[in-house]
């Protein structure tokens, strides 16, 4: 029987001719990451680990509290730098040259198509947009750092066949809307412990930024991997960035999927997830007439803090003002994006509209700094989770949407369908 | 590994943000597990962390531990929770739990078989879950004895397992 994309990559990484769902394997990783290494060095020392298996394959930065808002956070970064020096890590990104890991690292050769990655932070499913089998880890980081290996239970695969053509950023309907639609329609556990594979003729109509948002939020539907095929767009995006030759995989025609879902992209509208779950998603038009007032609008995070996102926001905000009762916080996913937004004049447009522009950080998305919510506040956010308490106060309300919807809502002061600004 | 304890019931989609709120815990990287655990479930069940007694058991619905990879299982362990049995569990939460030697069992239907305050008996190795209050018995998925997660759990967590493995100086396979 044929193999899915996930199975092919795991077979290679475990040195087996094939793998079967349900079996336990040891797989060799092509790369791993370290962020927020507050206790890591001490833990490695206690285990007698003095070297990482391959310093060239370990990427390090601090993105969650960047730069630190407290002495406690600063001390965490002090530990991180000691780890980098003592363990001879070469791929370390200091603030100013940093970004949120998932956006930053692929620009510096972290991944190539066909890779197997086990990487810290739940949104490590993101790299799946590059035809990579990438699963998030956390507690097992010392195992990966010491040996370059990780145990896995081979997941079943589920398939989303995408048909039609996504309207795209020009029409303010992007990858974010596809994944919110999927979470709302099929449930946030549709892919629990499974490899999700996005295939079909519709894939070509989704930009790399859109695929990134979808693979990124694969974790929000429970996925272990969220894998796209490799096409010309993938290779164009990674050209000149990769450190390893691509080894792209595609599913065999007789590959086994435990479930198959078909999503027609052509008439998809912008979506919004209502508090307090990414699966509470509905088309924005359904709630627009309720005129849900907002206090904060956030464009940023590893999900939607890219050029496509800020270009859409600038189109809406050009010549307009952020509503007097609203603050719009714009946080690029990396400093490279910050610089490009400056060069393209996007910051000029957003600043003139009254937006607050910050340096790159995970910041308010996990309720850490630079935009944490207070009691009773309502935020529309381009990030990935709206769990109760996620962005600060447990008494705050977070709505998830694409960056165009966030920008449109920032102008009107209530949750608004961005297509009103076309 | 067998536990008997009083049951706390939780519903579906209990996120790691609820167990380990970012603004209270992740914003303070130096905070101890014991201190951080005092904020566990503060948003959805204020005061719960202070009511837990060591040995209590959590019975939950679907997708327990969804969301962030933050080491939220450490919060439950620090409170003295003996184990979690849920209809289904997020992959990351399951792995994080096993790697700190904290048992989490997948047992579809378990949330229907318990009310809060019942007494549960959980045998981790066989996967047998009994409601001693109501005389109901269920079968959870038992980890294969030759699987890495079973061995890591029985070693008391990854650090013990890894220490032994590195001491033997051989590659696991």
Average pLDDT of chain B, to the nearest integer? 96
CATH topology category name of the largest domain in chain A: Aconitase, domain 3
**General form of chain B:** globular
Radius of gyration of CA atoms of chain A, rounded to a whole number: 21 Å
Q: Based on helices, strands and strand pairing, what is the structural class of chain A?
A: alpha/beta
Order of neighbouring strands in the sheet with most strands of chain A: 13-12-18-17-14-15-16
CATH architecture of the largest domain in chain A: 2-Layer Sandwich
Q: What is the CATH class of the largest domain in chain A?
A: Alpha Beta
Describe this structure in words.
The complex is a heterodimer of chains A (422) and B (173). Helix content of chain A is 27%, strand content 18%. With 422 residues, chain A is an alpha/beta fold. Chain A folds into 2 domains: 244 residues, Aconitase, domain 3 (2-Layer Sandwich), CATH 3.30.499.10; 145 residues, 2-Layer Sandwich (Aconitase, domain 3), CATH 3.30.499.10. A 7-stranded mixed β-sheet of chain A has the order 13-12-18-17-14-15-16, with helices on both faces. Chain A has a 4-stranded parallel β-sheet with strand order 10-9-8-11, with helices on both faces. A 3-stranded parallel β-sheet of chain A has the order 2-3-4, with helices on one face. With 173 residues, chain B is an alpha/beta fold. Chain B has a single domain, classed as Aconitase, domain 4, CATH 3.20.19.10. Chain B has 9 helices and 7 strands. In chain B, strands 4-3-2-1-5-6-7 form a 7-stranded mixed β-sheet. In chain B, strand 2, helix 5 and strand 3 form a beta-alpha-beta unit. The model of chain B has no long low-confidence stretch (mean pLDDT 96). At the A-B interface, helix 3, strand 6, helix 5 and strand 7 of A face helix 2, helix 6 and helix 9 of B.
